[in-house]
Amino acid sequence: MKKSLIVVLAVFSLVNAEQISIGGTSFERVDALEAYEVGCVSNDADACFEAGWIHYQRQNLNKAIELYTKACNANNYKACTNLGALYFGGEGVKVDIKKAKELFSKACELGDGDGCNNTAFLYEQEKDIKTALKLYKKACDLGHQIACGAYKELSK
């Protein structure tokens, strides 16, 4: 079976915005990062994730890791997946597959198809095919098309 590394970052970019609403406060024509950081200080997990993503894009990895960690601890699945990818790839941190697997698994438990797919891949690499299949199936059920293909291929 052809093996391929599939680590998908479920991220999107919003660097500047005309209007952003965070925690009921509307920010008009301000730097999006500033608005997200204000929201993050107020414990808005989504704002922490967005601020982390902007820092990641700007290659400020230490700050991105800090914000992703805060957001993941508050159950933002996108932050858990992205943080897991950083640990998997050793980007801004030492490679730590065990930590990456824990973060991907948490994202999966929170309903993230990317997290389930990535966790499945790691189990597949460990030759735990039964668990990998279960997780690929869950990711597929969550709409992750790559996981659907992996599930079909691994089921043969």
Which bin fits the share of residues in helices? Answer: 55-70%
Span between N and C termini? 10 Å
Low-confidence runs = 1-18
Q: What percentage of the residues does DSSP assign to strands (E)?
A: 5-15%
| N to C succession of SSEs | EEHHHHHHHH
Task: Report on the biggest sheet.
Answer: 2 strands, antiparallel
Q: Helix/strand/pairing class, anyone?
A: mainly alpha
**Biggest sheet, spatial arrangement of strands:** 1-2
Overall geometry comes to elongated
Written description of the protein model:
By secondary structure, the protein is mainly alpha-helical. Helix content is 63%, strand content 5%. The chain has helices spanning 32-41, 45-57, 61-73, 77-89, 97-109, 113-125, 129-141, 145-154, and strands at 19-22, 25-28. It has a two-stranded antiparallel ribbon with strand order 1-2.
What is the strand and helix layout of this fold?
Layout: E1 19-22, E2 25-28, H1 32-41, H2 45-57, H3 61-73, H4 77-89, H5 97-109, H6 113-125, H7 129-141, H8 145-154
Antiparallel strand pairs: 1-2
Helix pairs in contact: 1-2, 2-3, 3-4, 4-5, 5-6, 6-7, 7-8
Please tag this protein with its features:
63% helix, two-stranded antiparallel ribbon, 2 strands, disordered N terminus, 156 residues, mainly alpha, elongated, 8 helices
Summarize this, please?
This protein is mostly helical.
